[in-house]
Amino acid sequence: MAKKGFKVTLKRGLIGTTRDQRDAVRCLGLRRINDSKVIADNPANRGQIYKVQHLLNVQVEK
């Protein structure tokens, strides 16, 4: 069975981050601390997660 995606949760605030990091968090659909979304597993989303991995909690959805 293929992976369906990732469950990402914003664990840290965006104050002090760069504009690119804030844009990546918004593109993942996260708006506030402890906000969670399930996103598809594709190269574009993986790149955005990698850019802000220090702000997120990531779990693999099966």
Provide structural commentary.
- The chain has 62 residues and is of the alpha+beta class.
- 29% of the residues lie in helices and 27% in strands.
- The chain has one domain: Ribosomal protein L30/L7 (Ribosomal Protein L30, Chain: A, 2-Layer Sandwich).
- It is built from two helices and three strands, in the order E-H-E-H-E.
- Strands 2-1-3 form a three-stranded antiparallel beta sheet, with no helix packed on it.
- The mean pLDDT is 94.
Ordered list of secondary-structure elements with their pairings:
Elements: E1 5-10, H1 19-27, E2 36-40, H2 43-51, E3 56-61
Antiparallel strand pairs: 1-2, 1-3
CA-CA gap between termini: 8 Å
Instruction: Classify the helix fraction into a percent range.
Output: 25-40%
How many strands? 3
Backbone CA Rg? 11 Å
On the 0-100 scale, what is the average pLDDT?
A: 94
CATH homologous superfamily assignment: Ribosomal protein L30/L7
As a percent range, the share of strand residues is 25-35%
Tell me the CATH architecture.
2-Layer Sandwich
CATH class: Alpha Beta
User: What pattern of helices and strands is seen along the backbone?
Assistant: EHEHE
Strand order of the largest sheet: 2-1-3
The figure for the number of domains is 1
> What profile does the largest beta sheet have?
3 strands, antiparallel
At CATH level 3, the topology is: Ribosomal Protein L30, Chain: A
Structural class: alpha+beta
